[in-house]
Design a protein that fits this description.
It comes from Streptomyces similanensis. By secondary structure, the protein is of the alpha/beta class. The protein has 15 helices and twelve strands. Helix 9 (254-268) links the parallel strand 8 and strand 9.
Length: 404
């Protein structure tokens, strides 16, 4: 079966699909992953065909305010829609659509008659269990949570209005608004698999049929991969260190964050590894090492804790390794995942990025590393995650759609 996965966003929005795609390929399917040019090496390293999507979130303004985020998202979606159909070559038997690409992919599926399946990394359907994950809000109570969830979907529909109108015109489809399209998909119980663990977010009981939580799709990495020699030397030279990473967040803030990180580590009496990331963290010393990208699955089990921005992928990777976290959420869905880690006891209360200081970080690190309850909770989450088989569930869902 020829399967096309379409995903767009930052690295954390793409990497899980390389692992999913590789699993589908091992099961005998021909798999392509359509995403933006920056992630072509990730796609090809997983043994998948790469197809280019015409947008790049990294060139946006990068602001963290609500208005800036909405402006950047609308521009990104409009650009994405302008060339979306070009990446979808003829001959595809099944479309797997991320939350970002589904509002565009639905129209392509309609035009070509191609079956489609949602493969989401965040819960987007309204529920009384929690408010919309992208708002960063705390629970408003069940009725208000559901109302806020419906409002968030309406706001998302607005982001896609121009892109959808242009795409349907190009595909020679009659006009149909994003909101009307979404309602049509919901009435049809369009299937969506959610690639996160029930250890963090159990499936809400008030979700409609067709919405399932299957566990994480883990980013592909070479099983023979080894850590860099200098990192191995550092790990062996003393007690387990703490990793500090902000992933694709905090561009241009590296000098300030590096100073905070080093001061906090030394105040807490801990060794540390800084992952440069988009912020370009950097520091040198006998007790601190700076590195670039390394597979989380290889490094995380050898750490005392991970300080991170609470992106969905990093949050899951730390829990999978049985390692407690100190979360410093920046924007979007990060406060949601940070609170979920705290709720299961695998992290203390989040430190909002705007409130981050060396003292607050040192205090949180000292508490997290030295109180064994956090490590026990993380280990419990890891055992739960080990029972989940997201790729297997996906293959069964594909079989139900007629994909063998």
């Amino acid at each position: 079966m020829r399967i096309l996965i379409a995903a767009a966003g930052s690295r954390g929005d793409i990497a899980p699909y390389t692992g999913l795609g590789a699993a589908l390929h091992r099961a005998g399917h021909d798999v392509a992953l359509a995403t933006t040019d920056a992630f072509a090496p990730l796609v090809r390293a997983a043994g998948l065909e790469f197809r280019a999507l015409p947008a790049d979130p990294a060139v946006r303004g990068g602001g963290t305010g609500r208005r800036e985020l909405m402006r950047d998202a609308a521009a990104f979606v409009t650009e994405l829609g302008q060339g979306f159909a070009d990446a979808m070559a003829d001959g595809t038997d099944l479309l797997l659509l991320s939350a970002t690409t589904a509002p565009l992919g639905w129209h392509l599926a309609e035009a070509t008659g191609t079956p489609s399946l949602g493969v989401y990394l965040q819960p987007t359907a309204p529920t009384g269990d929690f408010p919309p994950v992208v708002t960063g809000a705390r629970s408003l109570g069940r009725p208000a949570n559901r109302l806020a969830g419906r409002f968030a979907l309406r706001m998302a529909d607005r982001l896609y209005t121009q892109a959808v109108a242009e795409l349907r015109h190009r595909l020679r489809l009659p006009p149909l608004s994003p909101a009307a399209t979404r309602r049509r998909q919901e009435r049809a119980d369009w299937p969506v698999l959610h690639g996160f663990s029930t250890a963090l977010v159990p499936r809400p009981a008030d979700w409609r049929p067709g919405l399932d939580v299957v566990g994480n799709w883990w980013p592909h990495h070479d099983p023979a991969a080894r850590l860099p020699a200098r990192l191995e030397d550092f790990l062996r030279a003393g007690p387990r260190p703490v990793l500090i990473t902000f992933g694709s967040m905090a561009a241009g803030d590296g000098e300030r964050l590096s100073g905070i990180a080093v001061a906090a580590l030394r105040r807490a009496g801990l060794r540390g590894v800084l992952q440069a990331g988009r912020a370009q963290l950097a520091a040198d010393g006998d007790d601190v090492l700076t590195l670039g990208d390394v597979p989380h699955a290889v490094l995380f089990p050898r750490l005392a804790a991970v300080v991170h921005h609470a992106g969905a992928g990093t949050s899951a990777a730390a829990l999978r390794a049985g390692v407690p976290a100190v979360t410093v959420p920046v924007t979007a869905d990060q406060p949601f995942w940070a609170r979920r880690l705290a709720a299961i006891g695998a992290a203390p209360d989040p430190i909002p990025f705007a409130s981050l200081t060396a003292r607050r970080l040192a205090d949180a690190l000292g508490e997290t590393v030295r109180q064994s309850a956090y490590t026990r909770a993380a280990a419990h989450g890891a055992r739960h995650m080990a029972t989940e088989d997201a790729a297997g569930h996906t293959l069964k869902a594909i079989a139900r759609l007629g994909g063998g």
